[in-house]
């Protein structure tokens, strides 16, 4: 396994469509360039074993014999500020943190890159990059497209940014995520994959030299499909124009620049056709206006325009310089016909507007009108988002921080109508305004048209996309079926008369449209064979009566029916006959377009190259030059494919864009969304590229919205959300805004299925689309919509804890609702008051509620009065006005009882119980809460699990305050059962934590561990890494406290899991401390090498934080692991001496330095390394004088004296013992303080007596010890020792029998007292 690619910041930059365009076609990426870079071209293969291991790292692609290069691509991401373009360090660190989390669970990120058609190899959070690779040209084509369209960056933005990012609109508008790759490496990899696949399409760079028979004859710019035969200089080639085969020199072939071209030509094979492009004097590729004829022209073919030199000719539609023919209108005669581009020169021409580029205004407008929803549809969506029961259901109080933050706003529960009623509601279209007061179904249960995964992608585009069904109610052109038995002459007259109109009429639309609707409308009731016979008779009648228009139209219909049955030769005859009829074809433009395109398509299918010359240019002009084309045949795709191939050969992007646009229209009209998608992506790429080339900041049409729908159909939620977020929103209606919200919801549910089940919060990103909708709604007068949008935003902000923004939205909703009616403003006002209560502003909430209460006294709305009473009571309790709070709770309780509202009654009783708990009345609280819980048992089917759980928790607290631990346990466990049955993860978390604390207090660690393990499982299900880490740390400590080897190893396992989370979250301080904890545990189980390894890791992590104080603490704690232990204590030395002590000196922390010197002294003394201990003891004495603490100075001198004593330097030891005694206070504040004097004076007495042989001084020290011992009557044993020492000295060293006997008698008496032989009160040490 090799190292990951290195970052190349100077070479890596964003790929724009224009840069990608230049990149693909640069000379180094021709085959000749490949030969220069990689000599000896051979058949290209992947590295060994790659097919078996498609995601193996370090894979290579062979470009030549013995030449390989890495196929790994480095994708680097960076958070930047839009305004300055500078990196945003806060955003970057947040992205790294999120990436560390997903790095440990790589399935999500693998799926992300799978949607992006890339193969993820590895993730490097610290380097802000991903390593990806590609195995096919199609993969690199799709990824490069997504990269250039901005989808890769948006996918990473949606994937890596947490929920709080989307709640800050100001920050959101100023930051962005940029992604960069090594462009040259990507292009080289594309070339390598082309060669690896063995065949590809290339363009000839020059005319071919026919030197041998087997050489292929080709001209410059010819398209050739090249196959690698393994030869060095000559490969096999097939010319697309003629289909001829032969050998071609490698150096003369350039692979087509875009991977899209390779895919298109491979998927849709065919010839390039017989185009003969000519240059003309036009400065722009697409123009409109007028031209001047440069010569006289007499029409050679039908429908050509006749003109004389100098005549003005108006361009009808567009003039595309990529085509030789356009459609013109003679200014003088008014005639319309085909005009050769070489016969005119520009006179007053201009390019299309910069925002159009290759579309007409009508085409852009209709293309932008993407599937508008009915008012009923988006009204239902808004109701789902803004629904809340705040005006009908009481809210629970919150006793302290351990209670639920809030009970989630539940939607109103409305009775479901019967199935028949629901069906009738769906089928009947309502003309009423969309926002009448109506029941609002739950967001989790209501359905919309987007719920159907297989819905057809419909477009209400005026001509291009709508279904041509206008004739369903029109009268038939013919009699009923029985009329066909009449005389033939009578039959033909009405048909011929109608078909012989010399201009287009609306009923003719059914004859030309794509759906063959004339079979069901105009000729309904006839089988196709019968219709063919009838149309033949009509054709004969038209020819006989010289009815030219009828003749042309009936031949067209006959040709369509034959083509429908794949009888192309017969259809061709009919179409050619129709075109041969001498009429002015442009009088019925749709018929003319249908004839030319159908006939040209048949020529292409039958490969009639000689006849193709006569119709191809005209068919191309009719398709591309006339805006808002209406398709009449699927076979028109054959013509469009040929035009697209010509655009590829000539590198004409405007011609390519126009062809792609028509292909998109055709496929979407046919419902072939999968086939349309690549062309929509290409068209979006071209619109951006052409806009950049034209220096226009706005693309001609934003297809992101359409692409979002198409990705949704293909179940690609990441791309759907990315393209949706990039939609410009230009000229969007309110219906469009709600459709975007619905699309966002659908794809968010796919990425987070818990949201569909109601167990997860609505994604915070929805606020972006709600704000867009609100911005559009604010431009109109629909106050109800504005109010509901504000309510929706307030609810989303509330659920994500952004109470400040929620309050602002609720205030706006209140103001807007007040403009509608008092009733409409009530719900918003109550929500505002509740949000103010949650935000800790009870005064503001009370100010909002009091006017509501006054107004409700005059109405018959008891439930609303109860809601206001309940909220006012919550305000009063938070203000400490207990009596008023109790009164209002009681009023709310009475109202709920009078209305028979059991849920509100239960809530009011629970709030009264909470109030009683807050004033230390647990008995009263119990009575209220038990009555509340009885009511909840009868509401088992209602969405009240959160309230039910909270009531049980409060009941448990009332028992706890009275010491009834078993009742507390039962209450909490009942609460947990309810939360589990309701699948409420947040409730389970709160209750499990309470139970864990309870069992900790009861010292039942086994049960405590069970519930904390449940908390860990819940944290993982909620994907909350922070909580998971906290609970793992608690579990580790609990297992460690059991003090067994098995429990210690279990603790070790949990600590390591916590360590991984700390690393993922980027919390260096927690990470270092967790490394330290792992080292401690390894030391406890006596695995010293592993302990030292983890402690060193803790130190290294601390050093990376550049915080000397933190590093000092970690070094010291690492040393303490060994210092305070019972084995391998010497291992503490390097942590103290080489780590923490230098840091203490560098930051001039004298307290820490003294502490460390003392530890080093004691450690070395215990290890009997007295000489080294002396050095640190001397330093400790020097530092102690600067600490300003006399106790530390005394301890330092005492320890130094002890070191000298151990070194047998007794005079020095005596000196420093006396120095330590001199630092003691002269007045004893407590008798126990005398014990230190006793200890030191005894030590000095022994030292002078036995070591210095000075009995006189020894007697003096023991007399001082005796005096100190007499002060501490509780330490009789020390007094006994002093008596014995003095008796011994006067018996031996300084003989004095009387004194010796006196001290001995005192010692013996004291000994009897210590042994329990005498009453302690009888003996008085002072008598001695």
From TrEMBL:
Keywords noted in UniProt: SH3 domain
Domain SH3: residue ranges: 197-258, 286-349
Positions of region (Disordered): 410-444
InterPro entries named in the record: SH3-like_dom_sf (IPR036028), SH3_domain (IPR001452), SH3TC1/SH3TC2 (IPR042772), TPR-like_helical_dom_sf (IPR011990), TPR_rpt (IPR019734)
Organism lineage string: Eukaryota, Metazoa, Chordata, Craniata, Vertebrata
Protein name according to UniProt: SH3 domain-containing protein
Coiled-coil zones: none
GO biological process: regulation of ERBB signaling pathway; regulation of intracellular protein transport
Polar residues composition bias: residue spans: 421-430
């Amino acid at each position: 396994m090799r190292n990951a690619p290195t970052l190349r910041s100077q070479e890596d930059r964003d790929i724009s469509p224009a840069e990608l365009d230049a990149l693909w076609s640069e000379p180094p990426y021709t085959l000749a360039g490949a030969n220069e870079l990689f000599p000896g071209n051979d058949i290209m293969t992947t590295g060994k074993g790659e097919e078996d291991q498609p995601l193996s790292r370090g894979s290579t692609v062979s470009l030549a014999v013995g030449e390989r290069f890495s196929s790994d691509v480095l994708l680097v991401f960076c958070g930047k500020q839009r305004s300055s373009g500078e990196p945003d360090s806060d955003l970057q660190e947040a992205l790294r943190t999120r990436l560390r989390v997903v790095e440990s669970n790589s399935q999500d990120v693998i799926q992300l890159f799978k949607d992006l058609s890339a193969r993820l190899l590895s993730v490097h959070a610290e380097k802000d990059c991903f390593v990806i690779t590609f195995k096919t040209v199609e993969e690199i084509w799709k990824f490069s497209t997504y990269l250039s369209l901005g989808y890769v960056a948006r996918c990473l933005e949606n994937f890596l940014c947490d929920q709080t990012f989307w709640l800050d609109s100001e920050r959101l508008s100023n930051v962005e995520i940029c992604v960069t790759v090594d462009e040259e490496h990507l292009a080289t990899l594309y070339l390598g994959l082309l060669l690896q696949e063995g065949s590809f399409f290339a363009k000839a760079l020059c005319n071919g030299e026919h030197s041998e028979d087997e050489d292929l004859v080709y001209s410059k710019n010819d398209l050739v499909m090249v196959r690698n035969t393994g030869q060095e200089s000559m490969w096999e080639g097939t010319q697309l124009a003629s289909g001829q085969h032969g050998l071609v020199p490698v150096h003369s072939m350039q692979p087509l620049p875009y991977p899209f071209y390779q895919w298109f030509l491979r998927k849709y094979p065919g010839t390039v056709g017989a185009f003969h492009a000519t240059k003309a004097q036009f400065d722009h590729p697409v123009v409109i206006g007028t031209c001047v004829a440069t010569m006289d022209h007499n029409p050679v073919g039908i429908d050509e325009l006749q003109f004389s030199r100098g005549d003005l000719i108006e361009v009808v539609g567009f003039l595309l310089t990529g085509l030789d023919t356009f459609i013109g209108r003679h200014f003088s005669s008014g005639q319309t016909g085909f005009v050769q581009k070489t016969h005119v020169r520009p006179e007053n021409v201009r390019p299309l507007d910069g925002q159009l580029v290759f579309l007409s205004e009508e085409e852009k407008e209709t293309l932008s009108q993407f599937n508008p929803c009915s008012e009923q549809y988006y009204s239902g969506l808004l109701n789902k988002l803004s629904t809340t029961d705040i005006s009908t259901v009481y809210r629970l109080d919150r006793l302290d921080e351990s209670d639920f933050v809030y009970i989630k706003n539940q939607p109103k529960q409305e009775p479901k109508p019967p199935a028949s009623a629901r069906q009738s509601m769906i089928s009947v279209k309502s003309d009423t305004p969309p926002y009448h007061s109506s029941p609002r179904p739950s967001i989790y249960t209501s359905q919309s048209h987007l719920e159907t995964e297989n819905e057809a992608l419909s477009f209400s585009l005026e001509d291009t996309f709508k279904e041509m069904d206008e004739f369903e109610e029109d009268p038939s052109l013919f009699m009923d079926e029985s009329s066909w038995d009449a005389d033939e002459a009578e039959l033909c007259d009405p048909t011929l008369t109608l078909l012989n109109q010399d201009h287009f009429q609306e009923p003719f639309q059914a004859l030309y449209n794509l759906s063959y609707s004339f079979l069901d409308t105009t000729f309904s009731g006839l089988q196709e064979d019968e219709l063919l016979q009838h149309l033949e008779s009509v054709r004969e009648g038209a020819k006989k009566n010289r009815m030219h228009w009828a003749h042309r139209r009936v031949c067209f219909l006959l040709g369509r029916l034959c083509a429908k049955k794949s009888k192309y030769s017969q259809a061709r005859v009919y179409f050619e006959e129709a075109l041969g009829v001498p009429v002015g074809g442009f009088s019925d433009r749709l018929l003319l377009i249908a004839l030319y395109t159908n006939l040209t398509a048949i020529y292409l299918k039958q490969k009639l190259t000689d006849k193709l010359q006569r119709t191809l240019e005209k068919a191309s002009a009719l398709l591309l030059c006339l805006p808002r084309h209406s398709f009449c045949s699927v076979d028109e795709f054959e013509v469009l494919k040929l035009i697209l191939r010509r655009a590829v050969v000539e590198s004409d992007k405007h011609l390519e864009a126009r062809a792609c646009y028509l292909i998109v229209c055709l496929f979407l009209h046919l419902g072939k969304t999968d086939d349309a998608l690549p062309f929509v992506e290409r068209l979006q790429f071209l619109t951006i590229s052409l806009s950049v080339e034209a220096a226009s900041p706005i693309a001609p049409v934003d297809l992101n919205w359409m692409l979002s729908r198409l990705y949704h159909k293909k179940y690609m939620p990441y791309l759907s959300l990315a393209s949706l977020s990039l939609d410009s929103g230009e000229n969007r209606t309110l219906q469009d805004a709600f459709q975007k919200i619905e699309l966002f919801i659908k794809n968010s549910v796919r990425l987070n299925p818990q949201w569909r089940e109601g167990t997860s919060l609505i994604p915070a990103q929805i606020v972006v689309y709600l704000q867009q909708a609100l911005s559009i709604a604010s431009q109109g007068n629909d106050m109800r919509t504005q109010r509901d949008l504000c309510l929706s935003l307030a609810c989303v902000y509330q659920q994500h804890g952004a109470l400040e923004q929620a309050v602002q939205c609720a205030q706006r909703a209140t103001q807007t609702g007040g403009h509608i009616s008092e009733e409409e403003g009530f719900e918003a006002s109550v929500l505002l008051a509740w949000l103010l209560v949650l935000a800790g502003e009870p005064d503001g909430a009370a100010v909002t509620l009091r006017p509501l209460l006054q107004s409700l006294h005059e109405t018959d709305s008891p439930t609303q009065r109860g809601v206001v009473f309940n909220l006012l009571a919550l305000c009063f309790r938070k203000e400490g006005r207990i009596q008023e709070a109790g009164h209002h709770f009681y009023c709310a309780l009475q109202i709920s009882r009078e209305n028979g509202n059991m849920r509100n009654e239960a809530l009011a009783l629970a709030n009264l119980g909470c109030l009683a708990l807050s004033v230390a009345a647990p008995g009263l609280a119990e009575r209220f809460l038990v009555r509340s819980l009885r009511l909840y048992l009868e509401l088992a089917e209602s969405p009240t699990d959160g309230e039910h759980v909270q009531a049980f928790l409060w009941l448990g607290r009332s028992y706890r305050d009275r010491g009834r631990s078993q009742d507390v346990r039962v209450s909490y466990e009942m609460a947990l059962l309810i939360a589990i049955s309701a699948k409420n993860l947040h409730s389970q978390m709160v209750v499990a934590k309470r139970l864990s604390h309870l069992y900790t207090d009861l010292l039942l660690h086994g049960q405590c561990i069970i519930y904390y393990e449940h908390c860990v499982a819940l944290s993982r299900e909620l994907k909350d890494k922070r909580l998971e880490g906290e609970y793992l740390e608690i579990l580790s400590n609990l297992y460690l406290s059991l003090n067994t080897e098995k429990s210690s190893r279990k603790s070790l396992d949990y600590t390591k899991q916590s360590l991984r989370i700390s690393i993922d979250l980027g919390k260096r301080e927690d990470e270092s401390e967790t490394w330290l904890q792992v080292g401690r545990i390894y030391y406890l189980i006596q695995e010293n090498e592993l302990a030292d390894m983890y402690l060193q890791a803790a130190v290294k992590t601390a050093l990376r934080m550049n915080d000397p104080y933190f590093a000092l603490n970690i070094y010291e704690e690492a040393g303490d692991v060994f210092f305070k232990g019972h084995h391998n204590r010497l291992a503490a030395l390097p942590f103290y001496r080489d780590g923490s002590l230098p840091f203490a000196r560098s930051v001039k922390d004298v307290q820490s330095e003294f502490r460390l010197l003392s530890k080093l002294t004691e450690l070395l003394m215990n290890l009997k390394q007295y000489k080294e201990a002396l050095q640190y003891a001397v330093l400790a004495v020097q530092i102690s004088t600067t600490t300003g603490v006399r106790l530390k100075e005394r301890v330092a001198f005492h320890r130094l004296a002890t070191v000298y004593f151990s070194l047998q330097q007794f005079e020095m030891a005596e000196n420093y013992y006396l120095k330590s005694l001199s630092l003691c206070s002269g007045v004893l504040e407590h008798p126990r303080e005398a014990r230190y004097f006793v200890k030191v004076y005894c030590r000095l007495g022994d030292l002078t007596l036995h070591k210095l042989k000075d009995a006189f001084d020894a007697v003096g020290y023991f007399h001082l010890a005796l005096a100190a011992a007499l002060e501490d009557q509780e330490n009789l044993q020390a007094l006994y020792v002093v008596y014995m020492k003095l008796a011994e000295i006067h018996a031996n060293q300084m003989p004095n029998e009387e004194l010796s006997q006196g001290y001995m008698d005192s010692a013996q008496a004291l000994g009897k007292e210590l042994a329990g032989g005498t009453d302690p009160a009888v003996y008085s040490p002072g008598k001695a």
